[in-house]
């Protein structure tokens, strides 16, 4: 019987590891990641050893002391000495575990002297990254899932980074102590990148701190790890670690792009341009709740909606300011004027809502002020 | 009433009631109540399409049915006791039942006192920027300072359209005035202090009633029990006045942020328990006056109610200390 | 009141109006099994959706409803009532009492359960759907962002709480007040001890849960701000209150299971329980420690480091008394005369797999390592090892062990053994790979996952179907036993069984111990 107890899981285990599945924690790329990994392995092996010892005794007993072999039962049922022994010994083992655990924990909590602060805000269901800058010129953007609905709904083959890909990753410099200030805007989320060994809950109204120092350039992927509503599973984290020089260049480019965009807001765009960009915005920001065909879901149907086909100012107000107390959030903080104008135009003309209305970035600015 | 649990003699048979419809009836009442109540709350908060609503009727029917069932339940128990079915051991079961019921109530209040402790000692200071994650103050709630009672809610420090930005379920408007004594000179006009005195004396009067019944003096028992019920009524009256003052005069409402939340939760549940305790005592009074129930050796109904009363009283002492004074 | 030895009434009113602890126990047991099937059905939906990457069967929002209801129904509907049912059947028989101390209240504690679950299940059909915020219902997902059905969820929790509190008060009163002469505390069977301690835990923490949902109700409908920072509250406060209940809750689930195993292992080892007194103290220590470890579910919420350390040390300590129990069970088997009937097989399965789950629990308790484990399938694997292979296996063992006593018929041993082996293998295929995907980074509560997790998830789903199917075999075996099992009439169905319940006739008559028996031997000795 003993053989079967241990044999079955082992055989299954062997057959599946052959397919190169990861079965263990990632040692990560950071120092803390390595410390945690070692801690994990240490405790696991201690448990394995205790387990093997304990169950060896049990299986021996099952083998040797069975009734069918004619074993007579002894009647002993007490021994203060062994009771004390098996209270004290595990206690000592626990102390041996607590020592490295404590020092690793203290390391994780040492947030001081960071060289770069990034404010991470969880939204349903995307992350917002904001680089806090002394000069006040903060760079800020949202990071949305880019896996297409077709892949999710199995009409297209799934790509390599299925569900773990975003439009704009968080970019951080290597060999720099980066401090993450983590919060949320609606419900609790949790920001996790296994290879950086950073997991911190994003609590609305509170800010948690965590930090990392990545020695190695690379792309590190993770996910939201706190149930945050329907699309909790579709809220990846992608971190791009680049050299400090590259990081500088990226920052400069980002600032430049922000300016260009505000220029664009002053222009008049063609209907096609607006529709094309509107479709893109819709498919990243709105589709999850309003459906690929505007048929609705968590949110109301867009196709044939009286709001969308009616008065522009009301439509605009809902998209910009959201509907309090529902999942419909205020998008003026997330989309710029061009994007807002585009998505409004798109909603008013797609899905059979052929109103023919064109909304220009200027209209949106006007509305915002008015 | 006094029997040693572990040496039940075996001569007295433990009374196990035959089958009874009480439990099922109580279940129906309870269920109608919560279902009706739930519908009503949802109509209130989420709005409902049709105007013709029956939820209020369901709730009322449920409550009436429930209370009637409980009444007949207690009546049955009383009858059994009078019929002499309850041995000392059965009584001991009731004693244990009441004791552990009160213990569970203690834990219920512990959740709210724990909440008060947590928001005052931890969450509040954190929001104001103390502790390890202190950045939230300047980034999220610029300039929020924490005092107790808070003079401002975090939401109000942000103000305007931004106030809706971070998950919340409404507008939290800070109150104008705290419920603590305004100034030391006007202490005699401060209701909570009078309420404390009243409730503490009612504990004493109920104790006097107890000694009276132990001595077999029914007239004295009725008198002091009556006084206790009267004190309870006065307490509730004053508490109503206190709420009026808070709500209408000081602008302290359920919406007043965490101060209003904890204030009304603790005093509200306490007030509800006072009302329950008072009803229990009143019923005992009626039993004694009308039906001459209770003897020097058998008066568990009264005793259980008085324990409950002492418990309500102790809760108030803590409440007075942590909600009003500290 | 009338005749001493009358049987049960007939018809439905027998069950509706009964005050008999055996009837009530039976109803609890059947009800919990029905809930186990329902919760299991939800689990099957989860596993079917997770069979392969991509969305196939259900929408993400519905998936979350399944996860939530699965957790709630299993914990509050299947496991807790099943052990209350066992307590009802066995405690009076084990301590030589004529019935539970407060029989009418006993009936009430049962009868409010089914409607409460009906109300909970009916939320599936309400506008906005059923609760979808996990069985831990963290605010503000469960308050500001909850569907309207949350109101009924809250009331359902209130009712479950009331039921548990009344049930526990009854058990406490029974054990403290109704023991037969000579049945001192230290002679009580272990099962009675573990339930007494469990009942204390329940009376202490269920009201706290009631407080938590009441605050939710206020936040949702009356504009308070307990769990909203904007008004000066804190969403994390909810978690503290929830886990102050929730952690003791997991021991509420496992302590009676410990009790069951402590009855069965000695019986089939034909040897008294080793270290009875230390078992009692260990159980009490576990219960005590369970009140000061709750925040180990919240290592990542950003507690101050002193708090993390305190909760980490306290949690680790629980391994000591639990270890004492494991060692005692094994010493009980040591040099016994072992035989392996189905109850014993399930008990050994319990022992091995629960310990494995305990080890992963210990790993989770290490705060820095938990940063990597938290909210992944590693946690899911941990708690199914302790709750399914722990609580459910021990409950299954209990049913096989006492079923002949209850109905006077023997179950089919060969079918029982098959049930055990399919369960054991199916269970491990389901949940062992979840350790791997968890460590490799798969979060829990997601309806779809990245491609590298595909193989193990498929394996896990296949295991789940096997394990689920084996439960139908169990159902069949139990029904077949009741209807047409081979009759047994020995008072002592198992030659090694000890305790008062084995001194009454088989099947146990409707009323037992109307005259208290006299107890002289200590429990668990020959
Ligand atoms: C029956 C239920 C049950 C039981 C008994 C346990 C037992 C334990 N649990 Fe578990 N746990 C759950 C049910 C249970 N748990 C559930 C449901 C969750 C998830 C809730 C959710 O989020 O949904 C959870 C989650 C959970 C977490 C949070 C994980 C996370 O979300 O990040 C932690 C962390 O510390 C933890 C720890 C432990 C520990 C230390 C024990 C200990 O009691 C285990 C002790 C036993 C042993 C250690 C084995 C035997 C001992 C020896 C052989 C002695 C020698 C050993 C050594 C010295 C190592 N559990
Ligand atoms: C004691 C409690 C208990 C029990 C017994 C189980 C039993 C099972 N659990 Fe459960 N589980 C929890 C408690 C429990 N679980 C909790 C608390 C959670 C967390 C919830 C949350 O995150 O909020 C969870 C979460 C959880 C998840 C994670 C979901 C997620 O994170 O999204 C998964 C996934 O595999 C799972 C699977 C299973 C399976 C396969 C079983 C199997 O053992 C079930 C086997 C039983 C059956 C299958 C019944 C047999 C009946 C039939 C087969 C008939 C079916 C009928 C028809 C087909 C008509 N459970
Ligand atoms: Cu965001 Cu889960
Ligand atoms: Cu726990």
Task: Characterise this structure.
The complex is a heterotrimer of chains A (370), B (326) and C (526). Helices cover 43% and strands 16% of the residues of chain A. Chain A is of the alpha+beta class and 370 residues long. Chain A folds into 3 domains: 31-64 and 80-108, no CATH class; 116-250, Cupredoxins -  blue copper proteins (Immunoglobulin-like, Sandwich); 265-369, Cytochrome c-like domain (Cytochrome Bc1 Complex, Chain D, domain 2). In chain A, strands 3-2-1-5-8 form a 5-stranded mixed sheet. A 5-stranded mixed sheet of chain A has the order 4-10-9-6-7. In chain A, strand 1 and strand 2 (126-132) form a beta hairpin. Chain A is elongated. The model of chain A is unreliable at 1-12 and 14-19 (pLDDT under 50). Chain B is mainly alpha-helical and 326 residues long. Chain B has a domain at 18-85: Helix Hairpins (Orthogonal Bundle), CATH 1.10.287. Chain B has 9 helices and no strands. In chain B, helix 6 packs antiparallel against helix 7 (218-249), helix 7 packs antiparallel against helix 8 (257-291) and helix 8 (257-291) packs antiparallel against helix 9. In chain B, 39% of the residues are buried. Chain C is mostly helical. Chain C has one domain: Cytochrome C Oxidase, Chain A (Up-down Bundle). Helix content of chain C is 66%, strand content 1%. Chain C has a two-stranded antiparallel sheet with strand order 1-2. Chain C is globular and about 65 Å long. Classes of the chains: A alpha+beta (370), B mainly alpha (326), C mainly alpha (526). Chains in contact: A-B, A-C, B-C. Chains A and C meet through helix 1, helix 2, helix 3, strand 7 and strand 9 of A and helix 3, helix 8, helix 9, helix 10 and helix 11 of C. Bound molecules: heme-A (2 copies), dinuclear copper ion and copper (II) ion. Copper (II) ion is lined by residues 247, 250, 296-297 of chain C. One heme-A is lined by residues 37, 40-41, 43-44, 46-47, 67-68, 70-71, 74-75, 79, 134-136, 380, 384, 387-388, 391-392, 430, 444-445, 464, 467-468, 471-472 of chain C.
Which terms would index this structure?
heterotrimer; A: 370 residues; alpha+beta; Immunoglobulin-like; Cytochrome Bc1 Complex, Chain D, domain 2; five-stranded mixed β-sheet; 10 helices; 16% strand; disordered N terminus; B: 326 residues; mainly alpha; Helix Hairpins; 9 helices; 0% strand; binds heme-A; binds dinuclear copper ion; binds copper (II) ion
């Amino acid at each position: 019987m003993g053989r079967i107890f241990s044999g079955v899981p082992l055989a299954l285990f062997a057959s599946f590891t052959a397919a190169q599945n990861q079965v263990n924690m990632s040692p990560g790329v950071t120092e803390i990641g390595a410390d945690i990994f070692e801690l994990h392995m240490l405790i696991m092996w201690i448990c394995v050893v205790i387990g093997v010892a304990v169950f060896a005794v049990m299986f021996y007993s099952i083998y040797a002391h069975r009734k069918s072999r004619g074993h007579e039962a002894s009647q002993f049922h007490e021994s203060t000495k062994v009771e004390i022994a098996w209270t004290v010994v595990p206690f000592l083992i626990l102390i041996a575990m607590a020592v490295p655990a404590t020092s690793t924990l203290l390391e994780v909590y040492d947030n001081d002297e960071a060289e770069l602060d990034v404010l991470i805000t969880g939204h349903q269901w995307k992350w917002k990254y904001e680089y806090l800058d002394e000069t006040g010129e903060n760079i800020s953007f949202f990071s949305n899932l880019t896996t297409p609905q077709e892949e999710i709904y199995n009409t297209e083959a799934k790509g390599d980074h299925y569900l773990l890909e975003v439009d704009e990753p968080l970019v951080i410099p290597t060999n720099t102590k980066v401090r993450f200030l983590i919060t949320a805007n609606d419900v609790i989320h949790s920001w996790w990148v296994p290879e950086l060994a950073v997991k911190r809950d994003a609590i609305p109204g509170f800010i948690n701190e965590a930090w990392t120092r990545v020695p190695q350039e690379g792309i590190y992927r993770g996910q939201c790890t706190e149930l945050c509503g329907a699309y909790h599973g579709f809220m990846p984290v992608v971190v791009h670690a680049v050299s400090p020089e590259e990081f500088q260049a990226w920052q400069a480019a980002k600032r430049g792009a922000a300016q260009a965009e505000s220029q664009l807001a002053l222009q008049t765009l063609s209907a096609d341009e607006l529709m094309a960009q509107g479709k893109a915005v819709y498919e990243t920001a709105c589709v999850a709740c309003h459906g690929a065909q505007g048929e609705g879901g968590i949110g109301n149907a867009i196709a044939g909606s009286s709001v969308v086909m009616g008065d522009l100012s009301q439509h605009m107000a809902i998209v910009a300011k959201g509907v309090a107390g529902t999942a419909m959030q205020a998008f003026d903080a997330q989309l710029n004027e061009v994007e807002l104008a585009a998505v409004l135009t798109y909603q008013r003309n797609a899905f059979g809502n052929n109103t023919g209305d064109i909304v220009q970035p200027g209209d949106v600015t006007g509305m915002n002020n008015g | 009433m006094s029997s040693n649990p572990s040496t039940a003699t075996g001569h007295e048979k433990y009374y196990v009631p035959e089958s009874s419809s009480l439990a099922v009836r109580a279940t129906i009442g309870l269920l109608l109540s919560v279902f009706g109540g739930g519908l009503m709350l949802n109509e209130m908060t989420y709005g409902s399409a049709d105007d013709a609503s029956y939820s209020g009727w369901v709730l009322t029917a449920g409550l009436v049915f429930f209370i009637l069932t409980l009444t007949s339940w207690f009546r049955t128990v009383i009858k059994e006791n009078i019929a002499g079915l309850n041995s000392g051991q059965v009584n001991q079961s009731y004693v244990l039942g009441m004791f552990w019921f009160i213990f569970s109530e203690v834990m219920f209040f512990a959740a709210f006192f724990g909440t008060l402790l947590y928001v005052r000692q931890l969450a509040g200071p954190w929001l104001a920027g103390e502790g390890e994650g202190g950045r939230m103050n300047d980034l999220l709630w610029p300039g929020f300072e924490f005092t107790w009672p808070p003079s401002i809610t975090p939401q109000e420090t942000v103000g305007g359209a931004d106030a809706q930005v971070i998950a919340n379920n409404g507008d939290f408007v800070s109150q104008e005035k705290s419920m603590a004594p305004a100034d030391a000179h006007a202490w005699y006009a401060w209701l909570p202090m009078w309420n404390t005195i009243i409730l503490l004396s009612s504990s004493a009067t109920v104790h006097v009633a107890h000694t009276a019944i132990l001595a077999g003096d029914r007239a004295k028992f009725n008198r002091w029990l009556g006084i206790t019920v009267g004190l309870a009524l006065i307490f509730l009256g004053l508490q109503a006045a206190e709420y009026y003052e808070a709500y209408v005069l000081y602008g302290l409402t359920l919406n007043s942020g965490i101060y209003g939340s904890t204030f009304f939760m603790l005093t509200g549940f306490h007030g509800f328990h006072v009302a329950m305790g008072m009803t229990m005592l009143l019923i005992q009074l009626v039993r004694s006056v009308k039906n001459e129930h209770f003897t020097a050796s058998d008066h568990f109904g009264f005793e259980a109610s008085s324990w409950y009363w002492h418990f309500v009283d102790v809760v108030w002492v803590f409440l007075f200390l942590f909600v009003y004074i500290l | 009141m009338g005749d001493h030895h009358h049987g049960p009434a007939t018809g439905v009113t027998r069950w509706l109006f009964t005050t008999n602890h055996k009837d009530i126990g039976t109803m609890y047991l059947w009800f919990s099994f029905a809930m186990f099937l329902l919760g299991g059905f939800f689990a099957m939906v989860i596993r079917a959706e997770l069979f392969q990457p991509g969305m196939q069967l259900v929408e993400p929002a519905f998936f979350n409803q399944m996860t939530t209801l699965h957790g709630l129904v299993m914990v509050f509907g299947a496991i807790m009532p099943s052990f209350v049912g066992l307590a009802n059947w066995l405690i009076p028989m084990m301590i030589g009492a004529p019935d539970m101390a407060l029989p009418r209240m006993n009936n009430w504690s049962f009868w409010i359960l089914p409607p409460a679950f009906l109300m909970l299940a009916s939320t599936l059909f309400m506008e906005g759907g059923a609760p979808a915020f996990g069985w831990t219902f963290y605010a503000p997902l469960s308050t500001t962002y909850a569907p309207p059905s949350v109101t009924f969820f809250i009331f359902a929790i209130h009712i479950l709480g009331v039921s548990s509190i009344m049930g526990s008060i009854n058990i406490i009163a029974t054990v403290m007040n109704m023991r037969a002469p000579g049945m001192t505390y230290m002679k009580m069977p272990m099962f009675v001890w573990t339930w007494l301690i469990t009942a204390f835990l329940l009376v202490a923490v269920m009201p706290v849960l009631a407080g938590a949902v009441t605050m939710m109700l206020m936040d949702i409908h009356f504009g308070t701000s307990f769990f909203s920072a904007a008004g000066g509250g804190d969403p994390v406060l909810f978690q503290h209150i929830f886990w102050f209940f929730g952690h003791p809750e997991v021991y509420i689930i496992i302590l009676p299971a410990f009790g069951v195993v402590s009855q069965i292992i000695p019986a089939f080892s034909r040897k008294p329980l080793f270290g009875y007194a230390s078992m009692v103290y260990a159980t009490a220590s576990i219960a005590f420690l369970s009140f000061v470890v709750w925040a180990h579910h919240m290592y990542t919420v950003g507690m101050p480091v002193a708090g993390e350390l305190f909760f980490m040390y306290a949690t680790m300590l629980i391994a000591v008394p639990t270890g004492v129990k494991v060692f005692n069970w094994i010493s009980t088997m040591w040099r016994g005369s072992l035989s392996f009937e189905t109850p014993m097989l399930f008990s050994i399965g319990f022992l091995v797999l629960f310990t494995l789950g305990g080890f992963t629990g210990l790993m989770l308790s290490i705060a820095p390592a938990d940063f990597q484990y938290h909210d992944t399938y590693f946690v899911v694997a941990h708690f199914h090892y302790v709750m399914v292979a722990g609580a459910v296996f021990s409950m299954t063992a209990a049913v096989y062990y006492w079923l002949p006593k209850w109905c006077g018929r023997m179950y089919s041993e060969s079918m029982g053994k098959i049930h055990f082996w399919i369960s054991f293998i199916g269970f491990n295929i389901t949940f062992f790979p979840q350790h791997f995907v968890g460590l490799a980074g798969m979060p829990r509560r997601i309806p779809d996952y990245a491609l590298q997790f595909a193989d193990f998830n498929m394996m896990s789903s296949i295991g789940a179907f096997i394990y689920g199917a084996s439960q139908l075999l169990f159902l069949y075996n139990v029904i077949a036993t009741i209807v047409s099992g081979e009759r047994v009439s020995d008072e002592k169905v198992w030659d090694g069984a000890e305790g008062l319940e084995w001194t009454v006739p088989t099947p146990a008559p409707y009323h037992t111990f109307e005259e208290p028996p006299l107890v002289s031997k200590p429990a668990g000795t020959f």
